[in-house]
Recover the amino acids of this structure.
């Protein structure tokens, strides 16, 4: 069953939402809370260790009712079934979208081209398990007989961001292995990392779904040459012990000189930005051990089950996506901030930028027609409380509306309750401040108590007023564990899916990144030869300047 091609703006629900927006846009959240004592309860979902409170959003019961009607009018239920069943919903590439199969239960059956893919998924998981055990225990050794101490992940985009984010997020659970990530084709980045490494004890994982990505292949080639430097007394045959690859492209891997037994396969039904659950996550499994890696997968599976089987009115990814559509398309919000109150999640919003913006940054609908409404949101964010001392000023008193998602954990990992209380006091205080703001009366009263003169108060008070009424959503999780992190990541993956269905776009291709790659190849040719392709005058000028 193909996905439906409904222009969301032509649905009845959209019209109702437009009217609802006109009617409610000037309502104050603090009044809505006063008028309805049950508001917080009504707009909160508790799913095991996840509390999802969306009551501080600029919505009424009718807004939610119409958003849910919109989900039904675009046939979201059927679309979810097609997604999980492995139908080729990535229609422009004729592929299924089955990152969910990577964390399915062994007893599940998911068919691709009439073949159950679960046994293959579990065979690769078994290979990851055996391999990681051997590296962590020191059973597999480097070319001089020493156990491995350092692991280098060479990849970019989805072959870097997911593993790098998770390795960082779960470093509390890590073992002795030191993890490094080389992504950028910037040679200085490569050499800065190489200078820390001893080739005798370093394992390199080359990750590229396509095995054609310029950055990854250049970095891998440079590193291979470095590894074979005469001063290290390495031989070609030592490559087999120190280099492994993860890819769908067996031929290109062989051409690169990597032994077939050192290859971890992946599949074209896994999108790069959703691939950390596959062997692309090998660095995660090496860092925290296979059991923790599996717990990450099982956490994601929990969210998959919640998403598949929960009524939309209680469905966290569905509600989260609908709220995003509400602000994006009715409030014309350009961006959304994601603020985790955990330093462990400092790479989380960067990771989500690829997932969300590469998926839903589209301007052609599923009929191939140019879209005349807004799609993908711009995502950004940094951990709190650091961000409070950096850009929160603009969220509080700027002119833009920026919905913010606050993510926090009840328990800290090292158990320092004093710090945790302070961290979470800030977490809660920010959502309260954004909701209530501070009125001129409150500001004047405060200044009076500070004994300021009437003249001084009159001059100062406008700058100290906080308008408030800024929308926030709170996700409060018991504790940061491999399982809860898996569940959190999967929440956003499904949010991306729901948004794409509503906006009537294909979320799982990324044609928009191709042109830059093509032009970079042409320009590289211009830079390294005497030839000059045709360019606009500005480009030509920059090119000449660089060459001289
Ligand atoms: O250029 C974008 C992209 O194709 C991403 O979608 C992908 O995650 C990244 O490049 C890396 O691709 P690969 O894993 O094939 O090297």
């Amino acid at each position: 069953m193909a996905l439906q091609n409904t222009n969301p703006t032509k649905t009845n629900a959209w019209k109702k939402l437009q009217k609802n927006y006109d009617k409610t846009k000037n309502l104050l959240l603090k009044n809505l809370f006063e008028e309805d004592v049950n508001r917080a309860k009504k707009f909160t979902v508790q799913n095991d260790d996840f509390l999802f409170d969306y009551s501080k959003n600029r919505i009424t019961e009718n807004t939610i009712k119409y958003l849910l009607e919109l989900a039904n009018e675009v046939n979201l239920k059927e679309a979810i079934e097609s997604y999980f069943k492995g139908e080729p919903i990535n229609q422009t590439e004729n592929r299924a979208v089955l990152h969910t199969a990577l964390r399915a239960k062994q007893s599940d059956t998911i068919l691709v081209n009439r073949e159950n893919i679960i046994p293959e998924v579990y065979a690769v998981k078994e290979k990851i398990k055996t391999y990681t055990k051997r590296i962590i225990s020191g059973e597999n050794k480097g070319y001089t007989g020493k156990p491995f101490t350092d692991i280098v992940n060479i990849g970019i985009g989805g072959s870097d961001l997911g593993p790098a984010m998770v390795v960082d997020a779960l470093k509390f659970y890590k073992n002795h292995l030191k993890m490094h990530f080389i992504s950028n084709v910037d040679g200085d980045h490569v050499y800065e990392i190489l200078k820390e490494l001893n080739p005798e004890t370093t394992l390199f994982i080359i990750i590229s779904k396509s095995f054609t990505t310029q950055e990854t292949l250049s970095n891998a080639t440079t590193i291979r040459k470095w590894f074979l430097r005469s001063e290290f007394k390495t031989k070609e045959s030592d490559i087999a012990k120190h280099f492994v690859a993860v890819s769908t492209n067996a031929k290109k891997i062989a051409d690169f000189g990597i032994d077939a037994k050192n290859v971890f396969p992946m599949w074209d039904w896994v999108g790069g930005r959703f691939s950390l659950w596959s062997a692309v996550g090998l660095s995660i499994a090496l860092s925290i051990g296979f059991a923790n890696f599996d717990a990450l997968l099982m956490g994601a599976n929990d969210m998959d089950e919640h998403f598949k089987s929960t009524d939309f009115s209680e469905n966290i990814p569905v509600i989260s996506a609908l709220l995003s559509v509400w602000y994006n398309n009715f409030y014309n919000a350009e961006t959304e901030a994601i603020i985790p109150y955990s330093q462990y999640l400092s790479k989380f919003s960067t990771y989500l930028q690829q997932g969300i913006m590469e998926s839903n940054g589209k301007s052609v609908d599923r009929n191939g027609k140019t879209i005349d409404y807004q799609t993908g949101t711009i995502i950004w964010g940094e951990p709190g409380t650091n961000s409070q001392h950096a850009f929160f000023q603009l969220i509080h008193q700027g002119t833009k509306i920026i919905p913010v998602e606050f993510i926090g954990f009840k328990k800290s990992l090292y158990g320092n309750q004093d710090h945790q209380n302070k961290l979470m006091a800030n977490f809660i205080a920010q959502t309260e401040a954004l909701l209530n703001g501070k009125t001129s009366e409150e500001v004047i009263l405060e200044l009076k108590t500070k004994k300021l003169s009437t003249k001084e108060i009159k001059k100062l008070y406008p700058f100290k007023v906080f308008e408030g009424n800024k929308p926030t959503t709170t996700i409060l999780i018991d504790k940061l564990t491999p399982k809860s992190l898996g569940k959190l990541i999967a929440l956003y993956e499904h949010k991306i899916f729901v948004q794409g269905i509503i906006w009537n776009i294909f979320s799982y291709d990324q044609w928009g990144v191709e042109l830059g790659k093509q032009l970079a190849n042409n320009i590289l040719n211009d830079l390294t030869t005497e030839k000059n392709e045709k360019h606009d005058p500005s480009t030509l000028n920059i090119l000449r300047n660089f060459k001289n």
